[in-house]
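Box 3.1. Reading complex inputs
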Amino acid sequence: MGVVHGQEMVLNIGPQHPATHGVLRLQVKTDGEVVSEITPYLGYLHRCFEKHCENVTYEQVIPYTDRCDYLASMTNNFGYVVAVEALMDIKVNDRVEHIRVIMAELQRIASHLLGLGAFGLDVGAFTPFLHMLRDRERILDLFEMTCGARLLYNYMWVGGLSHDLPVGFVESTYNFLDYFEPKIDEFVNLLVHNKIFVERTADIGRMPQEVAVSYGVTGPNLRASGVKWDLRKNDPYSIYKSFEFDVPVGEGGKGSVGDCWDRFYVRVLEMKESIKILRQALASLPKEGDIHQSIPKKIRPPKGTIYKRTESPRGDLGYYIESDGTNIPYRLKMRSPAFTALSVIDEIAAGWLLSDVLAILGSLDIVLGEIDR
Amino acid sequence: MKRYIIDIWAAATTILGGMGITLVHLFRAKNDNVTLQYPEERWPRPDRNIGFDHSNYNVIRSRLHVDMDDCIGCLKCERACPVDCIKIETEKVPNRGEDIKEIGHVGVTSNGSRKAMVVTRFDIDMTECCYCNLCTYPCPEECIFMTGGPNSDKHPIDYEFSEPNRNDLIYRFAKPGSREGMAKIISEQKAEV
Ligand code: SF4
Ligand code: SF4
């Protein structure tokens, strides 16, 4: 900041603070209202995920992956099983692939709904949060119908799925999509164009392209900065190649590219793209196919290592697995997108007002379960 | 000055737009109601109509239950559990497949397998359980399951099992007195030899 230095004050936000989306402590150096430096302190939610994984079998890792990004458990399962399957060279049939994509996209919508709602909450808009949670419930109902769980599913298994789709799932999903599509415009009216919201977010916390790339920020946060990078397009896994969808990028609709408003709006657009993918996947869902067909009797990957990454709602979710030929992973490392998103906060939030810092933090849509693991 | 008026105008219209949506919801509230008076009313569980062979499916997450008359003590569920919250101890039976009246042991399961083991301890610590359902799949007798699932007409769903005392959440399924009973039987056997 400028030349004039008043007295600096160090302020702790968190670890227990509703705006930190979990247990995160931000040590903020402030000069009056202006923030000059932010240091995030992690570890309050550390559960030794990676060390645990070295002690349980490959099947038993899946419930642990659920609990990393607890708002997008399906996509966490997805990334893990894709990695193990690549290591073991397993091909799953078309029905399984379709169901996985359907689940992952529903999860993306659910996760974005909560992320957007909580962002609205951070800047003081309470009503949209309730609207979004209401619609998220419907997605969770679909999940409950399928596997009995609403949040932590353990649904995708190496080589298949735990359950087939129940009767009536496809119709219910279509019903949901028909109901949900017009709702997006309602959110847009409630929040996106709302003058108060725009004032709080447009031009705030601009993340330039180079900063985003050099910090390894991925997912909607990167795309909001104008980089067209989506692993579903750029490094297609599963059957994403066969679907048509766009990758929305931030265009600075209300302010400049890469500001908080862009990060919000990119997520709104992404939900629309997810609906497109869902409709295509539901239409081409094969009727036949045993979902347990390629589940191996014993999961003992051959010696070797693999790094596989998938696009979770928060970005590039990678699993590095080293196998020594036994049924327990020798080493498992998870690359979490929320961690890199948080690492950039000092860069983009320094120099803004204290209340803007919380808006910026909300716009990054972090999940502490995944950052601390 | 112009900018100022435009800003005010934009703020007023967008807020009124939002208020409009709220107003619409106010009058739609009857059929769009999402709040339930929980203990009196319950959210209906989604229909779990699987449509084919139920026995392979256990699409529910609630409290675990074990049918001890069917359990053969194979320890498969214990091994499958990622958090090790199932604790099983077994003893060999003197005669395979025979009932042992003193401790209420049933020799043959409902599937017709003859038991070689008496389960003297079968504890599930529901405070540790993460409801991953992994223990229910490998069971050869389908006797460990989550209540309310398709194969448990006897056990209606039970997801409200909070307790004032933490230890009450450790569910002990083994027949009471089976450990002492087995110890006595074994010592009697030894005495005979
Ligand atoms: S549901 Fe999972 S955590 Fe609970 S007892 Fe079964 S295997 Fe263990
Ligand atoms: S897997 Fe089934 S039969 Fe075997 S010990 Fe567990 S509950 Fe008993």
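In summary: The longest strand of chain B covers residues 117-125.
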